[in-house]
Each structure stands twice: as structure tokens, then as C-alpha cells.
Amino acid sequence: MQYQIPQFIDTEDKIAGPFTIRQFIYVCITAALIFVLYFFFQSFLFILFALVVGGAGISLAFVKVNGQKLSKLVILGFLFYWNPQLYLWQPDKPQMPKNTETMHQVSGSLNLESIISGTSLKKTWQYVQTGSKAEQKDVRDPAAESTFEVFRQVTGELRAAKRVDFTG
To answer: What CA–CA distance (Å, rounded) separates 106 from 128?
Structure first.
């Protein structure tokens, strides 16, 4: 038994001449807005507003970007900027809440000494993997302590510099 397979399922039906129903509605709304603008504005302002409204309406009706309708892209753009974005990578802890408090807990207190010694990165990695904070023990690399020194400049800024021992 042969069955007919539907083809062209991603194309919309043409309702009014060469227009789909969505395109026809956009063109009608645009024409109605331009008609109303004709009675509210003088000729120069009418032409200016008619070009803007007409361009927006025609582009919403006919323009596609990467196969997506422009109206869909506009809605998705508003949703993207309206909703907050917070991205946390959690391969082993998907139940961990994704909010700003969690970000502050993960980052902890970052300072120059802990970044140079590597303890900050180790603590953050442990928290991301296990969901619990590491104990507060001072784990410093003796080689890093002997080669780098953290000092405060006159401006109050912390800087790291390589320690050079001229006496040896």
C-alpha cells in the first residue's frame, strides 16, 4: 500500500494572491497605520512617518534572516534583553541554584595573593565540582613565594613583582 508523503511542510499557504496570511495581515495593518497618519500630520511629517512605518511593516512581513522571520527575531531579541542572563557551568551539580549569591560563593574573595599562589583557582574548582567550600588553610607554593612578592604601591594598588635577590 502506498502512502502519499507530505512535501513542502515548512512553507506557508498562499491565501491572498502571492501573500501568506501573516504577510497579508502585516501589510493591512501597515496600510491602516499610514492611512491614520495621513489625517494626523502635515505633508512633510506624514511622509517621514509613513516611510518609517511602511518600512517597518514591509520588513516584518517579508524579511527573513537565516530562514527565520524578522518578527520572530524581534520577539526573541526583546526576550533576550528582558530576561536576566546568568550562566553557571555545573557538570556534576545541576540542582545547585543559579543566582547571584551562588556566583559570589563560587568566586569567594579574590585577591592578588591568592591568585598568584593558585589557591583561589583551586578553591573555586573544588566548589564547582563538589558544591562545598574548601577548608580555610593557607596552601602556598614555596617556589611562588620565593619568586614573587606582593606589594602595595603609593596609590594603594596591589601589584606583584618578581623578587630578585642581589645578595646571593
So the answer is: 7
**Cell numbers found for residue 121:** 583557582
Tell me which residue has cell 500500500.
1
CB distance 20 to 4 below 8 Å: no
- pLDDT tens by residue, 122-167: 777 777 777 666 555 555 555 544 567 777 887 878 777 777 766 6
Strand pairing category for 14-16 and 19-20: antiparallel
* Sequence-distant (≥ 6) Cβ neighbours of residue 123 within 8 angstroms: 108, 114, 133, 134
Read off the pTM.
Answer: 0.47
- State the alpha helices, DSSP H only, in the chain: 21-40, 43-62, 70-82, 100-107, 112-117, 119-130, 142-147
